[in-house]
Amino acid sequence: MKNWLTGLWKKARRDAESTDGMRAETLAANYLRAQGLAIVARNFRVRGGEIDIIAREGEITVFVEVRLRRSQAFGGAIGSIGAPKRRRLLLAAQHWRLRHSQRGNCRFDCVLLDGLDANNLEWIRHAFTADD
Q: Is the pTM of this model over 0.90?
């Protein structure tokens, strides 16, 4: 019985985190749109990677990672984007570019949220490159 309840609690927590993640991505997309970017896609997934938001700023394709953190512990939102995560983002971006025959310039941005509040949003352009 205890294992069943533990599993139920874990599922409820994952569902809540997923909902918060979607809300954070919506806040980020709305913010980027207000800054003049055109949102092309959201939640692009391939085996081994995912990109939260793909946007266009003029001729540049912008791949955006959205991070929500409620605490500054362990480096806050930016501290959670380590080398393994960057590799997964690069993999997904390569797949997207191949599928869409996209050869132009691109960049990798991050939108960091400390809580689900648009006033606590930070947009980091050129957060990392393929060479990082």
A: no
